[in-house]
């Protein structure tokens, strides 16, 4: 298909321009002088126009629309289906953007084109009145008043700037004009009130000018013709040198882009109406609700024949806007410059010029109005591309001899009457024309570039469309007609004579048949001396107006359903005002209720194809209103974009440091430290020095020469590891972290093929840019509520950018002076298969999942995206000391490259239980005190596998470009560390690098697995299963199960989902139906982001653990204290441990919320509400609900006088004896777990959930889904939310 040319676009040819360049310049950029900053915009606009042949606006080819297919086209695919039948906003928005861009180019040529600019254009005079009742036209109806108001606001702003402090800085010198006249402070105060009001108006002008200049600047820098829809789209368009580089720049730009529609609207008002709207101090133009179609119609009414005085005013405003856009001045300075210019040379306007923008009539929109219809003065310019078809939609208001010769307006008088487009005197004294009457046009009048279609074929000029035309005007404040892209039709906008299918809202038939009451009406287009509304002209004679019913008889309605189901009257609150009551919304224009019903599939298929297309067009718009907004879950729109192939500096180029590291085979490697930042260079080199200082006397690491006292246990081959068997592996992992040399023989290359094994090469994800200097300070938040202060040290995690693997590879292969150190840590593998046999034999949660997935309220699938991932790093990339989230163990397999992995554990392991471990002010997780921590490093090479403890502090450096496969797991061998890690990373999130709140699901599977395994016949337990079951015949193994029971009791409180409002669409719909706001539902009924199924899983897990401990293990085993006395393990071990943990969590929250760990170190003022205080209240409610589970627990909690400073109580010395007691194998689906696991908060939630889903008391059992019930009575099933 050939590119679209400008001269073939009818709408462009009939747009009122002041220069010929938009239509006749072969290359738009040639209309501007060489070197002009806007030549790039002109070139892009040219390319955009040529590419329109492959562009669709709405569902229609853009070129066809611009060539005339839209002209008086009443087909449903182009129109809204309300009674005004405006053109679809998907079309008018694109047309408005397109025309506004060309009108702005016209301004540029007029101001900057010089001698090349030609003004021999198709002259379109001013018409009378405006379409629609919009305030932007009233703002400029009196130019003298507008200029006076602007100057007053600018004067007030200038006076404000003149305030300067003298003496006491808190008491600045009063404004000089106030001080000179104030005889009493009362007068001074009154003057300040008046001044502040004027300054507020000046700020509106500044915002208006800035809004227009913002778009202008984008046109200079980005390949666009308007403001993009989102911040992300804007960043994608900007060239690298214009991308925001700092967090402040990102925040500033993203905040401005939150009102993209307002920015586009401000630019379109300035270009299509007048830039003078931007200096009106009474309104922010980006906040008005503007209909694009009405804006285009009013642009045609204003024409292009403004007087030199008016044109000079507009050009002065445009000149200041361009100066703002080019960075030569601020909008604040522009206000003062304009004020000074008009003070120095006051604009001289005649009475007619002063009222140029005033209106004498308000024209209500009618569907016959067309943005193509044009009133022009003869003679037409010979070079103007006016084809025969275009002549049919141009009216001539005056004889050729009366047309002005100058390109500006010359007042014209005419005595012609009875003709459409005749000039009649208006209130302004200027020529007033009526451009929107319907001209007759038949098919044989159309040429190739004027595609009008068969819908304009009747000789009387009326369309052949079956849709009915309804009377009625647009209400103030409506946008794009009653049915915008995002709004359903309001009751006032529904056309009683239009049959659009029963799926649309239909008024009461009786009301629909009533005639509108007689009364005064607004004058509409086509009125005046030429005739009444809707008169058409054929051959110079006037046809009488036909009623809408005569012109367009209504289509027969579909018969109503034979037995329509009665709709229940919505329940009303007694304090709501009743419709029609005084003070009630809409009381003055109350309407009968409307019926809303949808069509069934067979009813739609019975319709003809045109009607089906009409229904589809309507539904497509509804779909846009309800479909969720797309967003990239990996990066936010405000994340700075990664820029590669730019020069970088590395501190290590001038300051060398080498370190020795040993791989798992015992081979020493000497590596050069690559680091861009001096501070980080010194920190990393200090760490490597500390590691060297803790080596054995031989100079080698302890895992080589003193393995019994090392952090790491290294296996020289996979066979050495596998020969231990599952039980041996678990026992070894409980004591040391593991590395297996050459676990895998599979290798990758660090190229695009290898990187594609990690993720999509072009998908944007979070990438740490280690080439930038570290931030002075960092604050990381937990659920936007919990925050912990990080000391001002360097940290790569604070420098996250949005980038792709392709960019990362481009950086790694760039010349040395352009290579960045990049860390990409977020490539979840949601489609990866999890091996149920787990060759590593450490993933107890995987074993538990496959053994319990068919049990009631256990996980039916394990989310692989949370527990399987890839990481990619380039040379020099590092990640400071951190722990992995929620007590997860970690395994990492290097596929290509090298990783220097540093592990650190406290020399006193009891420190892990201290609530001050990560909250003490002197603690910096990025820089550990090596006097208190043991540190070891191993160099992982391709094929090496690391298996890391839960909550293990580790530092990672990349000496060579690397790709690693990895994952998370829970292990029975390290269960206590998992519990500690869950608690620490819940409160202090900056010690980890990612958050995924799925740990309750895997913990619940582990609980059910323990229940089944520990109560089963030992002979039936396989060695693989037995390796993952705790040894409850030992005191440590039994205590691990007790601690797991405590965790399960508190896992709702320790899960971040419990503090977030629900985003589930079904739940939100139910909440709206019952008048509940999400945050109130969270506070009052514990309806949170935690899913209904997960809530039930947690209830059952608590019940299973209570049954396992109290009814099974504590009956099967006797526990004796250190004196040999028999203990009650429930009251003397479990209850005290749980009470201690509850109080420890309260103490932990006190440190986080009150003791200066909320980012700034400042305490919140009393009496103020904040997200932190709201979250703390929710946490306290969760803990209270848990502490009230049993009387003995409540008493134990209340017995604490001081909050403990350790997470767990001191170890209780006891022994375990197995009794000769037969315990039946527990049924994991026993209904008793419901009662055993229910807390007060669960009761509140379940009761409210039952109300939301309209469940009766008889059907109040939990949702079962696909689980098979084992209850004596069948459960009633409800839809899973």
Automatic annotation (TrEMBL):
Listed Low complexity bias regions: 410-425
Organism superkingdom: Eukaryota
Domain JmjC: start-end pairs: 827-986
Region: Disordered, residue numbers: 397-428, 452-592, 1261-1281
UniProt feature, compositional bias: Basic and acidic residues: 472-483, 540-552, 1272-1281
Protein's name in the database: JmjC domain-containing protein
Native source organism of the sequence: Coprinellus micaceus (Glistening ink-cap mushroom)
């Amino acid at each position: 298909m050939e590119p679209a040319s400008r001269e073939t676009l009818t709408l462009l040819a009939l747009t009122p321009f002041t220069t010929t360049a938009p239509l006749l310049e072969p290359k738009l950029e040639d209309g501007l002088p060489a070197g002009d900053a806007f030549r790039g915009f002109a070139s892009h606009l040219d390319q955009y126009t040529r590419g329109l042949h492959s562009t669709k606006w709405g569902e229609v080819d853009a070129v066809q629309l611009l060539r005339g297919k839209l002209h008086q086209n009443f087909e449903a695919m182009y129109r809204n289906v309300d009674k005004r039948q405006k053109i679809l906003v998907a079309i008018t928005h694109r047309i408005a953007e397109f025309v506004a861009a060309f009108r702005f180019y016209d301004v540029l040529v007029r101001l900057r084109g010089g001698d090349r600019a030609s003004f021999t254009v198709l002259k379109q005079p001013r018409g009378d009145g405006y379409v629609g009742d919009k305030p932007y036209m009233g703002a400029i109806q009196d130019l003298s008043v507008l200029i006076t108001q602007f100057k007053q606001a600018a004067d007030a702003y200038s006076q404000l700037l003149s305030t300067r402090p003298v003496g006491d800085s808190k008491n600045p010198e009063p404004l000089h004009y106030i001080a000179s006249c104030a005889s009493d402070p009362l007068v001074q105060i009154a003057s300040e009130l008046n001044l502040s009001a004027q300054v507020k108006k000046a700020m509106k002008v500044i915002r208006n000018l800035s809004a227009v200049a913002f778009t202008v600047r984008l046109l200079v820098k980005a390949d666009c013709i308007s403001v993009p829809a989102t911040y992300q789209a804007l960043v994608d368009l900007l060239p690298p040198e214009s991308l925001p580089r700092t967090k402040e720049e990102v925040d500033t730009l993203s905040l401005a882009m939150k009102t993209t529609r307002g920015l586009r609207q401000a630019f379109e008002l300035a270009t299509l109406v007048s830039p003078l709207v931007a200096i009106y101090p009474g309104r922010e133009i980006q906040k008005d609700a503007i209909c694009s179609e009405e804006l285009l119609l009013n642009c045609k009414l204003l024409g292009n024949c403004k007087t030199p005085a008016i044109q000079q005013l507009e050009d002065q405003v445009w000149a200041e806007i361009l100066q703002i856009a080019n960075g030569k001045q601020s909008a604040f300075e522009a206000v003062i410059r304009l004020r000074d210019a008009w003070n120095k040379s006051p604009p001289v306007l005649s009475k007619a010029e002063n009222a140029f923008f005033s209106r004498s009539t308000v024209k209500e929109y009618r569907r016959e109005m067309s943005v193509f219809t044009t009133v022009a003065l003869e003679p037409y310019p010979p070079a103007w591309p006016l084809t025969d078809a275009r002549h049919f939609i141009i009216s001539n208001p005056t004889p050729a001899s009366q047309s002005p010769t100058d390109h500006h307006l010359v007042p014209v008088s005419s005595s012609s009457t009875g003709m459409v487009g005749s000039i009649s005197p208006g209130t302004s004294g200027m020529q007033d024309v009526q451009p929107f009457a319907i001209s007759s046009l038949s098919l044989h009048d159309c040429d190739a570039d004027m595609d009008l279609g068969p819908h304009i074929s009747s000789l009387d000029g009326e369309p052949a469309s079956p849709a009915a035309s309804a009377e009625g005007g647009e209400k103030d404040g409506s946008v794009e007609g009653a049915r915008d892209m995002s709004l359903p039709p309001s009751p006032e906008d529904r056309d009683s004579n239009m049959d659009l299918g029963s799926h649309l809202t239909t008024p009461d038939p009786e009301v629909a048949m009533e005639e509108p009451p007689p009364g005064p009406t607004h004058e509409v287009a086509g009125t005046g001396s030429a005739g009444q509304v809707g008169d058409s002209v054929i051959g110079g004679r006037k046809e009488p107006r036909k009623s809408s019913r005569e012109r367009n008889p209504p289509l027969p309605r579909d018969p109503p359903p034979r037995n329509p189901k009665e709709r229940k009257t919505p329940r009303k609150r007694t304090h709501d005002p009743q419709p029609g009551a005084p003070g009630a919304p809409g009381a003055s224009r109350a309407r009968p209720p409307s019926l809303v019903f949808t069509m069934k599939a067979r009813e739609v298929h019975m319709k003809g194809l045109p009607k089906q297309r009409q229904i589809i067009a309507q539904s497509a718009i509804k779909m846009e209103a309800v479909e969720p907004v797309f967003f990239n879950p990996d990066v936010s729109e405000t994340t700075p974009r990664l820029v590669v192939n730019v020069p970088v500096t590395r501190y290590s180029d001038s300051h060398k440091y080498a370190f020795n590291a040993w791989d798992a085979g015992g081979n020493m490697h000497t590596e050069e430290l690559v680091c861009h930042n001096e501070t980080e260079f010194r920190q990393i080199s200090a760490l490597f020095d500390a590691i060297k200082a803790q080596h054995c006397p031989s100079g080698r690491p302890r895992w080589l020469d003193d393995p019994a006292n090392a952090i790491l246990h290294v296996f020289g081959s996979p066979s050495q590891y596998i020969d231990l068997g599952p039980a041996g592996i678990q026992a070894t992992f409980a004591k040391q972290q593991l590395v297996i040399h050459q676990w895998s023989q599979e290798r990758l290359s660090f190229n695009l093929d290898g990187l594609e094994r990690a993720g999509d090469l072009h998908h944007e994800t979070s990438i740490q840019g280690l080439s930038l200097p570290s931030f002075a300070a960092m604050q990381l938040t937990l659920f936007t509520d919990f925050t912990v202060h990080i000391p001002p040290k360097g940290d790569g995690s604070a420098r996250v950018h949005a980038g792709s693997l392709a960019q990362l590879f481009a950086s790694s292969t760039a010349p040395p002076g352009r290579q960045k150190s990049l860390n990409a840590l977020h490539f979840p593998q949601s489609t990866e298969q999890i091996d149920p046999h787990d060759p590593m034999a450490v993933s107890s949660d995987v074993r538990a999942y496959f053994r319990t997935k068919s049990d009631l309220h256990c996980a039916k699938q394990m989310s692989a995206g949370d527990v399987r991932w890839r990481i990619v790093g380039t040379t020099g990339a590092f990640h400071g000391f951190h722990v992995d989230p929620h007590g997860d163990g970690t395994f990492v397999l290097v596929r290509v490259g090298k990783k220097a992995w540093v592990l650190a554990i406290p020399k006193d392991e009891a420190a892990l239980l201290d609530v001050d471990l990560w909250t003490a002010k002197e603690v910096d997780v990025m820089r550990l005190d090596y006097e208190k921590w043991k540190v070891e490093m191993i160099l992982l090479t391709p094929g090496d596998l690391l298996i890391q403890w839960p909550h293990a502090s580790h530092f990672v450096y990349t000496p060579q470009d690397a790709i690693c496969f990895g994952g998370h797991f829970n292990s029975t061998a390290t269960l206590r560390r998992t519990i500690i890690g869950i608690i620490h990373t819940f409160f202090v999130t900056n010690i980890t690098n990612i958050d995924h709140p799925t740990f309750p699901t895997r913990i619940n599977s582990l609980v059910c697995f323990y229940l089944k395994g520990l109560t089963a016949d030992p002979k039936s337990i396989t060695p693989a299963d037995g390796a993952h079951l705790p040894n409850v015949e030992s005191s440590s193994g039994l205590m691990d199960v007790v601690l797991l029971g405590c965790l399960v009791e508190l896992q709702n409180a320790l899960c971040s989902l419990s503090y977030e409002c629900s985003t589930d669409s079904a739940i939100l719909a139910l909440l709206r139906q019952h008048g509940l706001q999400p945050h109130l539902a969270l506070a009052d009924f514990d309806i949170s982001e935690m899913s209904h199924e997960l809530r039930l899983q947690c209830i059952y897990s608590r019940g299973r653990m209570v049954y396992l401990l109290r009814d099974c293990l504590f009956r099967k085993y006797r526990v004796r204290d250190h004196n040999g006395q028999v203990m009650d393990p429930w009251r003397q071990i479990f209850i005290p441990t749980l009470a201690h943990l509850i109080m420890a969590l309260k103490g932990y929250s006190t440190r986080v919320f009150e003791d200066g760990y909320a980012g700034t170190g400042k305490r919140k003022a009393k009496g103020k509400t904040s997200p932190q205080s709201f979250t703390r209240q929710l946490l306290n409610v969760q803990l209270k609900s848990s502490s009230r589970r049993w009387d003995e627990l409540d008493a134990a909690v209340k017995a604490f006088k001081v909050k403990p400073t350790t997470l767990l109580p001191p170890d209780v010395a006891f022994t375990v004896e197995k009794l000769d007691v037969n315990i039946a194998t527990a049924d994991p689906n026993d209904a008793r777990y419901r009662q055993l696991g229910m807390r007060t908060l669960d009761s509140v939630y379940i009761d409210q959930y039952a109300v939301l889903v309209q469940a009766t008391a008889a059907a109040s059992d939990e949702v079962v889904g696909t689980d098979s019930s084992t209850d004596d009575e069948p459960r009633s099933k409800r839809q899973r939310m």
